[in-house]
Specification:
Elements (H helix, E strand, L loop, with lengths): L12 H8 L12 H12 L11 E6 L6 H9 L4 E5 L3 H6 L4 H18 L2 E2 L2 E2 L15 E5 L1 H10 L3 H9 L3 E7 L2 H14 L6 H24 L6 E5 H6 L1 H12 L5 H8 L17 H13 L13
Parallel strand pairs: 1-5, 1-6, 2-5, 6-7
Antiparallel strand pairs: 3-4
């Protein structure tokens, strides 16, 4: 739902809604340098955000099309958590925005998306009765930008260490995993929509290569990260038993998850995962590459016996 209340924010609700529905730029805030400059100027004129109770900044790591948006929306429905959607705080940092502006935009992203309805493309992530865009006691702030965060990790393994020092808050990480064949196939489908150059076989090779780089970067990152700072969540488990997996998330963060919250969140989780892998024609060499990725990656071992796509 949009609002008619005027304000001086650089992006109006109608434009945000257009972007969220996939009919405009896919970055909600800051789709080009000029817009980032306008957002930075706006954020600099706002009062400093009240983060007196903030315990950590939450980042997602993983892969495009893994279910990060769903997990981010479920966390954002908790009254002690604010999760921005597709903000890309690491990019804002690389553009030179200071801590105050980045945190201000993080909260504003969560607030505005909660106000217009937490949609993304064809998916509706609104939690009935949830605190999306609102909070009572703000203990965790975060940004849902999993695939892009991991891409930066693959290019600069120490980027998140430096970002944590800059932010002055402890970092926590949610690593969302699903069957890699579904990730890769969905990458191919979106490449088709963008009309990327190449036939399906070439697009599939590129997607496999991209996925392999992300998996390697995340494996290395998790190996050197304190287990108390990072939680791996498998999409198939969330779909099979959303209440159980939400309790795991809540325990990881040390927050309470009451029955009303769990029931409302579970109600928006689809009962079965989409098998995007069935939409792509897998040649034997593609299947072999996928099996090799699974075999060498610890958090993918559970998929080794499924026979692939």
């Amino acid at each position: 739902m949009t609002t008619d209340v005027p304000d001086d924010f650089p992006i109006d609700d109608q434009e945000l809604l257009r972007r969220a529905r996939g009919t405009g730029p896919r970055r909600l805030f800051g789709h080009d340098r000029q817009e980032v400059a306008r957002l930075a100027a706006w954020a600099g004129a706002q009062p400093a955000p009240d983060l007196r109770d903030a315990e950590a900044f939450l980042l997602f790591v993983g892969y495009p099309r893994s279910g990060h948006s769903l997990v981010g929306a479920l966390l954002d429905a908790h009254p002690e958590i604010a999760i921005a959607h597709e903000l890309d705080v690491l990019q804002l940092w690389s553009f030179g925005l200071d801590r105050r502006r980045i945190l201000t935009l993080t909260l504003e992203n969560a607030r505005r998306l909660g106000r217009i309805g937490r949609n993304w493309g064809a998916y509706d992530y609104r939690v009935a009765g949830g605190a999306q865009g609102r909070w009572t006691r703000l203990r965790f702030v975060g940004d849902k930008r999993g695939g892009e965060t991991s891409r930066r990790l693959s290019e600069d393994p120490l980027a998140l260490d430096r970002f944590g020092e800059f932010l002055g808050l402890p970092l926590r990480f949610v690593h969302v995993v699903r069957h890699p064949a579904d990730n890769v196939a969905t990458m191919v489908r979106h490449a088709r929509r963008r009309r990327d150059v190449g036939d399906d076989a070439m697009l599939l090779r590129k997607a496999l290569s991209h996925y392999a780089a992300l998996a390697l970067a995340n494996d290395a990152f998790l190996a050197r990260t304190d287990p108390a700072q990072a939680l791996t969540l498998w999409h198939e488990d969330l779909v099979a038993d959303p209440r159980r997996e939400l309790v795991r998330l809540a325990d990881f963060l040390g927050i309470a998850a009451g029955d009303d919250y769990l029931d409302a969140c579970a109600a928006i989780v689809q009962p079965t995962p989409n098998r995007s892998r069935d939409e792509v024609e897998w040649a034997p060499e593609h299947r072999l590459v996928l099996r090799r990725i699974i075999a060498r990656t610890p958090f993918l071992q559970r998929y080794a016996g499924e026979g692939g796509p």
